[in-house]
Amino acid sequence: DAVPLSHDSSDHSLSEELSSLRTDNMSLKDDLQALKAELSNVKGTDERVVLLEKERSLLESSLKELELKLSASQEDVTKLSTLKSECKNLWEKVESLQALLDKATKQADQAISVLQQNQELRMIAYRR
Predict the structure, then answer these.
(1) If you ran DSSP here, which 8-state letter would residue 128 be given?
(2) CA 2 – CA 92 distance, rounded (Å)
């Protein structure tokens, strides 16, 4: 019972093709696993991007708040500068008024002294 050569050859050819398909199948399985791992990495990256976007949004809000506080602080500094200038001007006026008061007090003291001398002279003249 000799098997025809072409039948043996056909079996051998099918066996090689089956072996080749198995090799391709294993390669495709490996590729599929690699793609699944990459997809998982991409999903993880997407989640990190979402978290980073939320963090960026929070940081932008914080920055806006700080900018508003800075603006308010700058306005306060301007007001303080104005108040300091007004205070200096008022202090100069107080010093000027104090000098005028000192001068008026001195003149009043001199007038009192003259009046006292005048009264003493009248008393002396009246006694004579």
Answers:
(1) -
(2) 132
The token duo for 35 is: 């793609």
Sign of CA dihedral 24, 26, 32, 35: negative
| Tens digit of each residue's pLDDT (9 = 90 or more) over 52-71 | 999 999 999 999 999 999 99
Tens of pLDDT, residue by residue over 23-48, are 999 999 999 999 999 999 999 999 99
CA angle 93, 96, 101 (to 5 degrees): 125
Alpha-carbon distance of 69 to 6, in angstroms, equals 92
Single-letter amino acid code for the residue at 55: E
Q: Which two tokens stand for residue 117?
A: 């001398």
Q: What tokens were used for 100?
A: 């005028």
